[in-house]
Structures are given as C-alpha cells and as structure tokens.
Fold this sequence. Notes:
Blueprint: H1 11-32, E1 40-44, E2 47-48, E3 57-58, E4 65-78, E5 81-94, E6 100-102, H2 105-114
Antiparallel strand pairs: 1-4, 2-4, 3-4, 4-5, 5-6
Amino acid sequence: MERYKYDEASPEFLDRQEEELLVCILLDTVDMSIPMIFVCGGTNFNGPLKGYEGLRVNCPRCHNNSVMALKKREFFTFCFVPVIPTNYGKTLQCTICPYSRSTSDGELEQLKNHG
Length: 115
C-alpha cells in the first residue's frame, strides 16, 4: 500500500518496484531450489564367526595373539541404509593392527584343531 504514496515517475517508486520484483524472484528461487543431499558409501558388518568365537591366532604382522575369525559382510549404503551386498565371506583379522585376509572352512578347522 505504501507504493501508491509515491508518484510513478519518482525514483522512490521505481526503487520500490525493483525491490518488490527482487523479493518475488528470490522467493521463487527459494521455493524451487530445495537442496537434496543424498549420502552414499559403504559399511562393514563384521562379526564373530559362529563356532570359532574363542579362536585366537598369532598375527604375522604385529606378532600378538590377536587374530580372530570373522564373518565379513560389506554393503553399499544409500542414505545410511544398507542396500546392496558388495562383499561377504570369512576372514582372519587382527584386533590390534590392520592385518586381514580371507580364509576357508578347511583352514579354520585346521587352526581350531591345531591351535
């Protein structure tokens, strides 16, 4: 309602019109450009391997008795939800250093009976 106070030829009226136009453009831009952020990645769901929970083996890297048999499950995640399994199997992993390698049932039985 204030804009009718000014004469249409006055600079104040033109500035007011430009300001209202700018505000309308900004509001339209804000309404149409809602940012969408999607988080993708991978995650591990490793856990103790049933039947081999007490198995501890010497680590060839750090020489501690800290290598455990684990059930390895890796998933592709979309917005923190596991969607697609990318890798799974059995692994021997050190709890102290980053040593890790895949293993088989035969090798696990041999380590369990031998160690």
